[in-house]
Amino acid sequence: MKAMKLPEGWTVWLAVLGLNAMAGAMWFLNRGVERPEAGGSLWAMLRSLGPGGVG
Q1: DSSP readout, 1-27?
Q2: Cα distances (Å, whole numbers) of residue 4 to 1, 7, 10, 14
Q3: Can you say how many angstroms the Cα of residue 45 is from the centroid of all Cα atoms in its chain?
Q4: Which pLDDT belongs to residue 52?
Q5: Distance, CA of 35 to CA of 53 (rounded, Å)
Q6: Nearest CA to 33 among 18, 46, 49?
Q7: Torsion over CA of 10, 8, 2 and 4, rounded to 10 degrees?
Q8: What CA–CA distances, in Å, run from 24 to 19, 51, 52?
Q9: 15-52: per-residue pLDDT in tens?
Q10: Residues 6+ apart with CB under 8 A from 38
């Protein structure tokens, strides 16, 4: 079941990319919770999209 020929070590790169994405999301969420004003208009937009205007 080898449809695509993947380069050696692709699992390592996939894991690294996944961890980086998770770390970035956690940092953004933690920063947003601690300092909502840090996000500026982006954070305001995300809050307005949330249910009942979270925050």
Answers
A1: ---S-PPTTHHHHHHHHHHHHHHHHHH
A2: 9, 10, 12, 15
A3: 16
A4: 58
A5: 16
A6: 46
A7: 70
A8: 8, 23, 26
A9: 999 999 988 888 877 766 655 555 566 667 676 776 65
A10: 31, 32
Domain spans of the chain, in order of start? 10-49
Cα–Cα distance measured from residue 40 to residue 6, given in angstroms and rounded to the nearest whole number: 41
CA torsion 27→33→39→42, rounded to 10°? 100
* Joined tokens for residue 8: 């050696």
AA identity, residue 52: G
Query: Can you say how many angstroms the Cα of residue 53 is from the centroid of all Cα atoms in its chain?
Result: 21
